[in-house]
Design goal:
This protein is an all-alpha fold. It has one domain (12-168): Ferritin. The chain has six helices and no strands. The chain binds fe (iii) ion (FE) (2 copies) and magnesium ion (MG).
Length: 169
């Protein structure tokens, strides 16, 4: 970001360096979410496996796209996206839940927790930029809409599993 662009954001009360830090944490979260979904889709077992694999695979692609959006904004702001995978673990807000148990029900729980964390983080970025940095605000809103959909999708499968299990009893 140019000097004048930065001055304007700062004059609206945005601490650009703080914002870049927040965005880098979100960037770390996106990469970890991407991989957690991607590997989860590979190892998943149980019912309904196909629906879960399809959803996890789609979400992994969305998280990777989010990582790209956040990286682009960090660069526009004059920052540098994290350059080392080990920084993802050091900077993450939402963490990484290793899918030790490949049971689809466990994977769903882990990923629902991740989405809830992501929703909280993007809400924070929106609160920080509202009325001050509309570009970052709009980006966070777009991503937030996806994360809300992700949470709903996973919770819907969880409900289906409950119904299925109750019929098997
Ligand atoms: Fe995401
Ligand atoms: Fe998501
Ligand atoms: Mg979905």
């Amino acid at each position: 970001m140019g000097t004048r662009g930065r001055e304007i954001l700062e004059s609206f009360g945005v601490k650009v360096n703080e914002l870049i830090k927040m965005l880098n944490k979100a960037f770390a979260d996106e990469w970890l979410a991407y991989y957690q979904y991607w590997i989860g889709a590979k190892v998943a077992v149980g019912m309904p496996k196909e629906a879960v694999v399809a959803e996890l695979t789609q979400h992994s692609a969305d998280e990777l796209r989010h990582a790209g959006m956040v990286a682009d904004r960090i660069i526009q702001l004059g920052g540098k996206p994290l350059l080392e995978p080990k920084e993802w673990i050091a900077q993450t807000n939402c963490g990484y839940d290793r899918p030790d148990d490949p049971d689809v029900r466990v994977l769903l729980e882990q990923n629902i927790k991740g989405e809830q964390c992501a929703i909280t983080q993007y809400k924070k970025i929106m609160d920080y930029t509202q009325g001050k940095d509309p570009v970052t605000y709009d980006m966070a809103l777009k991503i937030l809409e996806d994360e809300i959909e992700h949470e709903e999708d996973l919770e819907a499968i969880k409900e289906d599993i409950k119904v299925m299990e109750s019929k098997l009893k």
